[in-house]
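Task: complex structure prediction.
Instruction: return structure tokens for all chains below.
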Amino acid sequence: MEGVKFWRKPLDWEMIQVTRGRVHIFEDRCKGCGYCIAYCPRDVLSFTDRFNRKGYHVPSALKEEECVNCHFCEIICPDFAIYSEEIPQPKEIEL
Amino acid sequence: MKSVHPYDELLRTDRIPHIWCPGCGIGTAFSSMLAAIKESALPLEDFAVVSGIGCTGRVAGYLKLDSFHTTHGRALPFATGLKLGNPRLNVVTFSGDGDLFAIGGNHFIHAARRNIDLAVFCVNNFNYGMTGGQVAPTTPYGAKTATTPMGNDEWPFNLPLLAYAVGAVYVARWTTLHVRRLTDAIREVFDRRGFRFIEILAPCPTAYGRRNRMKAPLDVLKYFEARVRVRHDADPAEAQIDLESPIVVGKFVDRKRPTFLDLWSKRYAPDEDEEVHVA
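Output:
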């Protein structure tokens, strides 16, 4: 967990797994509304200069390592153009 | 390996991308329903989705379940027939405000009065989007549309109050910004019985937003973000939408009433009572 500091090891540390996710984008379905970019809680996505087949600017996961697999982009996308899936993580403890 | 979207199993992918405009809220409302269907783990062959005419009516065409694209305003009569013909079906009506409340308003009040066992999802985008953004029975007072360029002088329907007054057992309102809560509400609705109604406020940037200073799709969601207040169990009479006061959302009504089929089977088939209802 980057940027999070604990003053002691949390009691439920073994139970809490911070998930990591990977975003998949179907560029040809995207209509460039920008909902996923505006409402991503970790600001993973940004607009790019590229165009898709229909001439819309498509988002790209520029900070992919920040994704926590919350699926919000997946559910708010009106065009079924984006989803996230979990990357299995080895447990690492930072104190 | 080609990756597959998690909702593709419920979509007719040969028809995607769909016709809805960039930023249209119908797609979000639709994906909330798909998420709720997947979460509910109810048998897919028991679902029957009925929609009427209009932008929202196209949902039936994109869904890979038994779905029915009916005549204008008549989604509820078709759904009523489906439910009465095969009470085991889990009948869902997914249609727009123009279809359910303008041309189909009469059917809505009578389906709710009879308490037919239907889940009704109404995507309210405040205007007739498909035909070019004309004034609708849900256009707020003062809003500009193609046919009221100086501002609308009619009062709109308060849909939760209407549904409550005519007898719906579950009444909620969410926006497409509250996708998680909307999905939970739809999920909850699948577990209830009787006439269940959810109003889904959705952006229509192309036809409505453009004339009301919300041209970009995100402007409408920012508007919802700023104006919406979540108030569960609020009096539906306070849920009137206008251009000044906050938009009240939440679950307004959750009550029990015997459905039409309950009462009918009690009178005409008292022995089969157990078998009639599964969903």
